[in-house]
Amino acid sequence: MKKFVFLISLLTCFTASGDLAAQKKFLFQRAAEGDAWFDRGYYERAERIYEAVAADARKNKKNYRPAQSLYLQKLAKAKAKLGKLEDAEALYREAEKIVAEEGSISEVTRIQAINGLADVYRQLGEHDKAGKILGDTLVAQEELMGPDHPALAITLNNQILLLRDQGQIDAAMALVPRTLAVAKWRSVRMEVMKNTGDLHAKLDEQQAAQKMYAQSLEVRERWLWNNGFVEHKAEPLSHVEFLEAYAGFLLKVGETAESTRLTAKAAEIRARRGFNEVK
């Protein structure tokens, strides 16, 4: 009888474990669906999916806690895109708190949450708050990861954006060499290059700006290819918006042929991906 009870208990344990694995997989797939809508610029649809995923993850905090921080950050990004900055602020704070309490979650996840919060404050115009968060985060990163870790580029890039918004272009430019030196991750490097191009353009340094935009495009296309976006014809809206902005810049500086090529490429992706549809 004892052996029978033991076997039943063991079977129940395995069943529960299997159900949990299936539930985690389902949430991951749902979050990926939200990512697909987010990449297409359908932020309201992405928001609804992320809200459902985050709600399910909250119901079982113990088992979903590591992933919960990521789901909350995804929801916060969608909220920020929709202009719901106060909601995004609260979500980023919740995500950062989870990471701080869970030692098993990577430090990079925490850095992303903190930087997301700082970016919300930047968009709200609360520059002092954003600056303090970014400054404290950078010091902590350097102590924990060393001065050359690629993750530092995330925080440095946000400092560049903050200084740009404050009109401190020279101070922002002063951060560029170090940021580019540590920006080894292509997803970050391409944004640093794009932002550096914007700074050169503000300083009316058109040749330098064009060089940085061209390098950003090269890194961006390599990143898209390596991550399967090109193969699956799933280029995100952010890539199209970059192409259109770069094309506009080229037109202003007289590079008509390349501007026309990029404009046509952006239009083709927009039409194929349905970016022009009513959302």
3D architecture notes:
- The protein is mostly helical.
- Helix content is 82%, strand content 0%.
- It is built from 12 helices and no strands.
- It has helices at residues 2-39, 43-59, 61-81, 85-101, 107-124, 127-145, 152-165, 169-182, 186-202, 206-226, 237-252, 256-273.
- The longest helix is centred in the N-terminal third of the chain and has 38 residues, at 2-39.
- It is globular, with a radius of gyration of 22 Å.
- The termini are far apart.
- The model is unreliable at 2-16 (pLDDT under 50).
Percent helix, as a range, is over 70%
Mean pLDDT: 89
Counting copies of identical and different chains, the oligomeric state is single chain
Please mark out the parts with pLDDT under 50 across 5 or more consecutive residues, or reply none: 2-16
The proportion of strand residues reads under 5%
